[in-house]
Amino acid sequence: MRKLLAAFAAATMLALASGAQAQTYPDRPITMVVPFAAGGPTDTVTRLVAEAMSKDLGQQIVVENVGGAGGTLGAARVAKADPDGYTLLLHHIGMATSATLYRKLPYDTLQAFDYVGLVTDVPMTIVARKDFEPADIKSLLDYVKANKDKVTLANAGIGAASHLCGMMFMSAIQTPLVTVPYKGTGPAMTDLLGGQVDMMCDQTTNTTKQIKAGTIKAYAVTSAKRLDVLPDLPTAEEAGLAGFQVGIWHGIYAPKGTPAEITERLSKSLQLALKDANVAARFAELGTAPSTEAEATPAALKAKLESEIARWKPVIEAAGQFAD
Length: 324
Known about the structure:
single chain, alpha/beta, D-Maltodextrin-Binding Protein, domain 2, nine-stranded mixed β-sheet, 11 helices
């Protein structure tokens, strides 16, 4: 009985401490980890949202770039952090695909994190060097199928958005291409601009500026409908790629065991941030839109992650591109 009473008292004290912590949260700066290099598409999204959330929370959110291993190094860093709400992770679709891509993850994707909410779902674009021969998306499909052994498809490394979209593209056209992995989106785009590689499939947050400037050739967008920011760019479905819709969704996570009061506070702050006029305007310029209030919730992000793990598992296994 004494042991039971002691255990009950300890649990009560822990709950009281957790409640007190949640009531004063946040009382110091928060670190938001981006598991990719600075300057990339996910980093851009993170910095916009972090700035807006900082205003509401009354504490600065410091963005920390922890790149490497397709985003898994940064995710592992957050998984091991204290569950006190002061270390967060903003990750994209790679959070779901890494569960299949990597044979030896240092964390259990569905068990190592708590959820804050969805941030945005960025469309992808199929682009090429500006002097690539095909004139439009339909002729592109014919060309790559006829020249599959010499067409080069760049990506920013295993687990990157461009890698995932590239796999989906090859699966959709049932044609394997020569893939060229880089150590980030920047080097991949640099070589595409320089004509060292032929094609890439990447987020509008990284390609819109180059498309508008005419420094790369754009063929299609992977959204369900055309984008206001790129109205002349057809959807992949318009070209006959039925069901080819790829969005690089982003979400915010906390270490497992973070008090529910804190994740709910962060979720409310995220919802306000996504209504910020500057965030909405900048997202529109980049070809994307903020998540809705209903999507920027722990439950919505959890459901999205679970469904996306199931969706991508057969695609990755069929491609046979795994990492240790």
